[in-house]
UniProtKB/TrEMBL annotation:
<keyword id="KW-0472">Membrane</keyword>
<feature type="transmembrane region" description="Helical">
    <location>
        <begin position="127"/>
        <end position="144"/>
    </location>
</feature>
<keyword id="KW-0812">Transmembrane</keyword>
<dbReference type="GO" id="GO:0016020">
    <property type="term" value="C:membrane"/>
</dbReference>
<protein>
    <submittedName>
        <fullName>Pantothenate transporter liz1</fullName>
    </submittedName>
</protein>
<keyword id="KW-0813">Transport</keyword>
<feature type="transmembrane region" description="Helical">
    <location>
        <begin position="80"/>
        <end position="100"/>
    </location>
</feature>
<dbReference type="InterPro" id="IPR036259">
    <property type="entry name" value="MFS_trans_sf"/>
</dbReference>
<dbReference type="GO" id="GO:0022857">
    <property type="term" value="F:transmembrane transporter activity"/>
</dbReference>
<keyword id="KW-1133">Transmembrane helix</keyword>
């Protein structure tokens, strides 16, 4: 390939990956982060004392997946976009939680952190759960696996995706098709 051909194919491939991978990971990250903010707000409102929790009793793979597709230079921008989603959800969740924890502590004999989970749970739990399940099912079909095993890239784009990573970091993560399958990955994750 000439440099112009490679650049054209590379731009097209990156747009495909951005549309599928980045869009879905940001959406999933925002949904995941909404509940995490409730835990932090509840902790500040006294849940830690009431439930006698301490240390790591409160505690992903998005960055790894992104690093399988983007060069180091491209990864910086995509990581910033990903974390922007969490900041946006954190801003809204934090404001809402502050209103609840400051105004309802002791109301009807319940701690503010309990009100936080009751109110936000009633308002958003069902909707968030339905949205999260729908997004997770869609993500199974949209989020790409590794560059060599992604079905929606043509052979030229697959080779280019692998070549770009090799050129950027000097090596390819590929082992073989038996050790890089979905089943092998799931087994490794559970073990």
């Amino acid at each position: 390939m000439t440099d112009d051909e490679r650049n054209r194919v590379e731009r097209k491939m990156i747009r495909k990956v951005d549309f599928r991978l980045l869009t879905m990971t940001i959406l999933m990250y925002i949904l995941n982060y909404l509940d995490r903010n409730n835990i932090a707000s509840a902790k500040l409102a006294g849940m830690q004392t009431d439930l006698n929790l301490h240390g790591n009793q409160y505690e992903p793979g998005c960055l790894y997946l992104l690093s399988c597709w983007y060069t180091r230079k491209e990864l910086v921008k995509r990581t910033a976009v990903l974390y922007s989603g969490s900041i946006i959800s954190g801003a809204f969740s934090g404001l809402f939680a502050a209103g609840i924890t400051q105004n309802l502590d002791g109301a009807r004999g319940l701690s503010a952190w309990r009100w936080l989970f009751i109110i936000e749970g009633c308002m958003t739990r069902r909707a968030i759960c339905q949205i999260s399940i729908t997004v997770a099912i869609i993500a199974c079909f949209i989020i790409p696996d590794l560059p060599r095993t992604t079905s929606w890239l043509n052979n030229q784009e697959k080779k280019l995706a692998v070549w770009r990573l090799e050129a950027d970091i000097g090596e390819d993560d590929w082992v073989d098709s038996n050790h890089q399958s979905f089943i092998a990955g799931a087994k490794a994750a559970f073990l």
